[in-house]
UniProtKB/TrEMBL annotation:
Protein name: Formate dehydrogenase subunit delta
Source organism per UniProt: Bosea vestrisii
Amino acid sequence: MIEITSARTMSHDHAGEHLAKLAFMANQIGDFFKAYPEAEAVAAITDHINQFWTKRMREDFRTGFADDASALSPLVRQARDKVRPAPVA
C-alpha cells in the first residue's frame, strides 16, 4: 500500500526535522562550552552560532524555538536570545 501525503504534511515534517537538527547542533556546541563559567559559555555559544551558521539557520533557530525551547539545553536557551537575526532585505 502506498501512502500519499500532502505537500503541507511533508513540509511540516521537513520543518520539524530541520529544527531537530538545529537543536542537536546547538546542544553539541553547548556541551562543548558547558565547563566554562556560565556567562562565558553563553557568550561563546552565541559567538560560534553567529560566526558559523548561515543567516537562514540563525533565523530558523531564533524563530523556531521562540515559543518552545524545551529541546535546547539551558545554556543554549540563553544564547538563543543573543543570536543575531538575519538582516531584513
